[in-house]
Amino acid sequence: MLEQIFILLIALVVLVWSADKFVFGASSLARNLGISPMIVGLTIVAMGSSAPEMMVATTASLQGNPDTAIGNAIGSNITNIALVLGITALLQPLTVSSQTIKREIPLILAVTALGYWLLIDNHFSFIEGVILMTGFAIYIIALLVITLQKTKGKPSDDPLIIAAEQDVPAAVDMKLSLLWLTVGIILLPLSSSFLVDSSIFIAKAFGISDLVIGLTIIAIGTSLPELAASVMSIIKKEDDLALGNIIGSNIFNILAVLPIAGLIAPGDIDPLAASRDAPYMLGVTLLLLILCFSRRRGAFRITRAKGALLLLSFVAYQVLLFSHL
């Protein structure tokens, strides 16, 4: 058992590290090919934080454990809002003025509701996976088109877009870019395979379901990049980016991570995912929407008290999960 716990922790560290190197290599390669920092920031860098979830979902689904993949997507969204944003707001209250974020907060509620609706019959089909993936493609294209139309070749005045551009790593030599990209491509699936295998072993040893292991250990572990990014954002006084990272990651989790289970391993799912976990995810997302509409001079304001409320909702969810074991 101790050996499996050690493997899980090492695999998690390697997974997060390799995702970072993959994003670095891909971003640098894109910059070398002449792609603008804004486009790189809104696509490659933004999707990078969800790379661990995508690899875990793919590995778990290929191994015939779609409940782990579904649990990872749902659990990561709950963790991002309740734990990551809760801790971030407790450390430093957030004031967010980005129009992009104001547009995407209602969107994340709609996307979350769609994910819940697709799971409500306790069956996740291939077609439903295609629907979500199509939504992901539409979202990325719409985000780029709207942003490019607003800027029209000029620098953006949106705090989130500015911060996203600044977060793009500087381009390095093409050979070095390809090296880090290759390292990420090799280590991401390898580490995710070890992570899923050790998680399932531990879950079975303690009598925990595949769904719960995805909702807890894996979800919290794969949300560490969002926590690190949010903490760094408030240190740099980039409040918009701190919240933007979480919102973007949650949209990606529903539209790009969740459908992987349906595309690779369609079929019946654990009924608790639809009756307990997806509704809680929707409720936490609705809570975020309500908290964000506390305005100050037109900006969203997430105070320490609101951060404490979010953190309390995370603790309550863990109690709910383990009270059913």
Automatic annotation (TrEMBL):
GO terms for molecular function: calcium channel activity; calcium, potassium:sodium antiporter activity. It comes from the Bacteria. Pfam families: Na_Ca_ex. The keyword Membrane applies. Keywords: Membrane, Transmembrane, Transmembrane helix. The keyword Amino-acid biosynthesis does not apply. The chain crosses the membrane at residues 69-91, 103-120, 126-146, 176-195, 241-266, 278-295, 307-324. It is found in: Membrane. GO terms for biological process: intracellular calcium ion homeostasis. InterPro entries: K/Na/Ca-exchanger, NaCa_Exmemb, NCX_ion-bd_dom_sf. GO terms for cellular component: plasma membrane. Residues 5-144, 177-321 form the Sodium/calcium exchanger membrane region domain. It is a multi-pass membrane protein. NCBIfam families: calcium/sodium antiporter. This is Calcium/sodium antiporter. The lineage of its organism: Bacteria, Pseudomonadati, Pseudomonadota, Gammaproteobacteria, Alteromonadales.
